[in-house]
């Protein structure tokens, strides 16, 4: 029997992570990947993420039993159009990983009407503000919800096939309609990105008047704005694709802010206390504490602004096989120090690194 043939289209953070999980869970399948630029293709072959790479999408698509599109949302719809013009295998199963679902599910139903094509929308609800195949990981989606959306082009058995293919992601699969998906992710993901970017923008505006402001941004500001470093390509597409729900959330949030504004101006301290207390209790009960979304682990080290300091710190880790996936120096302080940001794949590695830095230096380390 010929090997089952899987095409991962788009070798970025998500495509790369899916490729790793599929290849690791099904070493007997033939996994191919399309990517327009060469560097991710070379990386995927060197790291044995996949068996075959190409910049010719059509060549790979016509051989595939399953195709997963991992592009910005609008581009995935263009690729569906392109697929509809090819002689695909009969009953090919197509899915995607985009952050919105209504637009692509509706487009797929229209594009493949009457054709022997199966389509299930997909959205692994984990990721990062980082992009690219280099940041990909087999366990990126471990314990995270992976939403699958039915379409007129899918049946129950197709879901089992896709879940089996993706089993090694160790994600928690859940079926939601495309409408339900978009309404809920607007609340928990899309609108919060708008808030994060607005907080950064507001701070920058204010710093034009009082330049020292940005130096006073501490841990709380950092936690609330990490996602403002996400890809503008990806997030502008998401906002365009789920605009109604996001606008609705902005309206609701404006009302909430105005209500708090009234309490503050009227100095209603008891009500303000109750407002914070309610939020504290609600957040402590939210499932985010189970850690599903924490997939990268940062350490921030306050280091002297001298050459060689990065090598010095990395030298402390000699003999320990730590999974550093990103190194960045942030010169945010006007004084002598810079902030060295190291990102690890696992919480264990983050803890080991913190311990080693504390053993070898007197640098301040923050998580
Ligand atoms: N980054 C995240 O945290 C998450 C992202 N998603 C969704 O996954 C999808 C992929 O996102 P990422 O992997 O994060 O992005 P990425 O930036 O890491 O990868 C995007 C891929 O699209 C390709 N691409 C972009 N424009 C192209 C073009 N014009 N022609 C051909 N290829 C093109 C790039 O080469 C790359 O392979 C998006 O729809 C995003 O909404 C879903 C869950 C989490
Ligand atoms: O960076 C983060 O914490 C995220 O929120 C990642 C993310 C980005 C886009 C999605 O559709 C799902 C998850």
From TrEMBL:
Gene Ontology biological process: tyrosine biosynthetic process
GO molecular function: NAD+ binding; prephenate dehydrogenase (NAD+) activity; prephenate dehydrogenase (NADP+) activity
PROSITE patterns: ACT (PS51671), PDH_ADH (PS51176)
Broad enzyme group: oxidoreductase
EC annotation from Swiss-Prot or TrEMBL: 1.3.1.12
ACT domain sequence ranges: 298-367
Catalytic activity: prephenate + NAD(+) = 3-(4-hydroxyphenyl)pyruvate + CO2 + NADH
Keyword Glycosyltransferase: no
TM annotation in the entry: none
Domain Prephenate/arogenate dehydrogenase as annotated: residue spans: 4-294
Record keyword NAD present: yes
InterPro entries named among the record's database cross-references: 6-PGluconate_DH-like_C_sf, ACT-like_dom_sf, ACT_dom, NAD(P)-bd_dom_sf, PDH_C, PDH_N, Preph/Arog_dehydrog, Prephen_DH
The entry's keywords: Amino-acid biosynthesis, Aromatic amino acid biosynthesis, NAD, Oxidoreductase, Tyrosine biosynthesis
Highest taxon in the source lineage: Bacteria
Pathway recorded for this protein: Amino-acid biosynthesis; L-tyrosine biosynthesis; (4-hydroxyphenyl)pyruvate from prephenate (NAD(+) route): step 1/1
Family of this protein: Belongs to the prephenate/arogenate dehydrogenase family.
NCBIfam families linked: PRK06545.1-5
PANTHER family from the UniProt entry: PREPHENATE DEHYDROGENASE, PREPHENATE DEHYDROGENASE [NADP(+)]
Protein's recorded name: Prephenate dehydrogenase
């Amino acid at each position: 029997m010929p090997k089952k043939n899987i095409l991962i289209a788009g070798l970025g953070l998500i495509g790369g992570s899916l490729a790793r999980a599929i290849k690791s869970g099904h070493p007997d399948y033939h996994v191919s990947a399309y990517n327009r630029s060469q560097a991710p293709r070379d990386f995927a072959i060197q790291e044995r993420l996949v068996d075959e790479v190409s910049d010719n999408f059509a060549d790979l698509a016509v051989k595939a039993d399953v195709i997963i599109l991992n592009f910005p949302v609008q581009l995935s719809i263009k690729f569906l159009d392109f697929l509809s013009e090819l002689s695909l295998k009969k009953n090919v199963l197509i899915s995607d990983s985009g952050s919105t679902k209504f637009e692509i599910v509706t487009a797929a139903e229209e594009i493949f009407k009457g054709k022997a094509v199966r389509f299930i929308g997909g959205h692994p609800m984990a990721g990062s503000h980082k992009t690219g195949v280099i940041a990909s990981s087999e366990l990126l989606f471990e314990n995270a919800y992976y939403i699958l959306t039915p379409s007129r082009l899918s049946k129950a058995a197709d879901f089992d096939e896709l879940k089996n293919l993706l089993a090694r992601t160790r994600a928690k699969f859940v079926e939601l309609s495309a409408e339900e998906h978009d309404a809920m992710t607007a609340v928990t993901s899309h609108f919060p990105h708008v808030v994060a970017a607005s907080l950064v923008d507001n701070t920058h505006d204010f710093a034009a008047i009082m330049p020292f402001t940005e130096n006073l941004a501490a841990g709380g500001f950092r936690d609330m704005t990490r996602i403002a470093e996400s890809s503008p390509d990806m997030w502008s597409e998401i906002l365009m694709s789920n605009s109604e729900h996001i606008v609705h959330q902005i309206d609701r949030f404006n009302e909430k802010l105005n209500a708090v504004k009234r309490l503050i101006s009227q100095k209603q301290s008891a009500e303000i206390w109750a407002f914070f207390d309610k939020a504290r209790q609600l957040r402590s009960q939210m499932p985010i504490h189970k850690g599903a979304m924490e997939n990268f682990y940062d350490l921030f080290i306050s280091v002297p602004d001298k050459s060689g300091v990065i090598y010095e710190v990395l030298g402390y880790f000699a003999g320990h096989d730590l999974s550093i996936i990103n190194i960045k120096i942030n010169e945010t302080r006007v004084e002598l120090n810079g902030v060295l940001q190291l990102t690890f794949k696992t919480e264990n590695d983050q803890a080991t690194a913190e311990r080693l830095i504390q053993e070898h230096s007197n640098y301040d380390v923050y998580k």
